[in-house]
Amino acid sequence: MKNHFIFFISAVLFLMACEPEDTRITSDPDAKLTFSDDSVIFDTLLTFRTSITKRFRIYNPNKRAVVIDRIGLGRQNSEYSIIVNGEESNEVENIEIFGEDSLMVLVNVSVDYQDENLPYLVKDSVEVSWGNYQANVKLVAWGQDANFLYGDTIKTNTTWTSDRPYVIYGYALVDSLATLTIDAGTSIYVDNSSYLLVAGQLQVQGDSGNHVTFSNTRFDENYQEAPGQWGGILFLEGSKKNRIEYADIQNGTFGLRIGNPDDDDEYDLAVYNTTIRHMSQAGILAFTSDVYAENTLIYNVGTYMVGGFAGGNYTFEHCTFVNSPSFFVSDDPSVQFADNLVLTETETLVEELSVSLTNSIIWGSNEEEILLSNGGGTELDTSFINNVIRSNTTWPGNFISQERDYPGFYDPSSFDFSLDSLSFARDKAIPGAIQVDITGKLRDSKPDIGAYERFDKE
Q1: Pick the residue with more confidence: 409 or 261?
Q2: Which domain holds residue 67?
Q3: Are 390 and 367 in contact (CB under 8 A)?
């Protein structure tokens, strides 16, 4: 019996000697743990939406394992949830961290509706207890209540105010007999594959200090410049006299898409002091339509900064269209107009085309950034006066170049297309009726080409 006991003890000692040091649980109640962050902060989140997942790590710098007694949220009925080792819960217990190893804690938040106009703070903490210690990692988010539209049709004259954002899921349709007016400072967020459809009339009434914003529904940093997150603003056949002033339209598929064949040349859409950016397909895409734009900036689009097909009537004054730098690669000109549109192998739509471009900049990374086509056989009515254009074509009365920084933008790498102090476009515009620039500031007696007027600091 004595020999058996000695053998048993020896076996235990042998197994203990073979057990890795980092898996042996420490008996020291004062063993320290460290944390990658003391707080986890989320961007503003619309109510009823779940955030992206954020994370922090708990590090065990000791040679032996440490048992965490509890990892849990500080509040009951919390808007937050945690995931530890694949388990989502408000609380987990008895979690081991091996020696010189770490544990990842994932955090989500879904904000409850609180019937507030202004964003409100949503706070909690993750409490971690082990040995003689307790630590807290703060959780911070901002919630934003909104007016939600789920496939709604606006049938009467309606005004959207800036009190709360408007969020579109699926679509919102302005009926043919209705006018939707959007006040200055209003924000419209449109979900994935969702659209604002206009069969009636749209009046966007931003001002220089309070733009109207059309954007995606995610506010996290990785989504702030990501194209293709929603469909676009689509003007349907029969929609006329639409007007957009001081708006920012961003991160969609199409900025403005117009398909409105008619027999007159009255503008179906007029755009003023507006920026359209980060679009996966087009900034302005029109078919047999009448479009006017002034002091309008379009940049970083997948295919067309501006496209007008199957004829139409298009006028652009003091605009800046730039596709360099861009998230996209394309060998085709990013500004195109044609009197025709091929529908099928046997069917082509052809209408007369009129294009007027004055005091504007068309620029990009391609050697040719503008294309005019009369493949339908009509006689083109074009007026290109005093523009800066990247092109291989001779355009009399315009400034043509292949030099990389020819227009002289301030900081194109940061998508700042205002003019540098030495910009070629300075003081070269033909003075006209447009007295302000895209920001609403008065142009001087020698105005600049493009949407921006350069103002030197005194």
Answers
A1: 409
A2: 20-143
A3: yes
Neighbours of 291 (CB within 10 A): 23
- Number of Cβ atoms within 10 Å of the Cβ of 10: 10
User: Which of 127, 143, 159 is the C-terminal boundary of a domain?
Assistant: 143
Contacts of 311 (CB under 8 A, 6+ apart): 288, 339, 340, 350, 351, 352, 353, 376, 378
Question: Per-residue pLDDT for 15 more than 50?
Answer: no
Based on the fold, state whether residues 391 and 246 are members of the same structural domain.
Answer: yes
Q: Per-residue confidence at 3, pLDDT binned at 50, 70, 90?
A: low
Mean pLDDT of 130-141: 95
Mean pLDDT of 392-419: 95
Last residue of a domain, one of 124, 143, 162: 143
Q: CB of 256 within 8 A of CB of 283?
A: yes
Could you tell me if residue 425 is inside a domain? no
Q: Are residues 199 and 267 in the same domain?
A: yes
For residues 395-421, average pLDDT: 95
Tokens of 398: 């315009």
Q: What pLDDT does 9 receive?
A: 53
Q: Residue 109, Cβ neighbours under 10 Å: how many?
A: 23
Whether omega before 165 lies within 30 degrees of 0, making that bond cis, reads no
Residue 8 has pLDDT above 60, yes or no: no
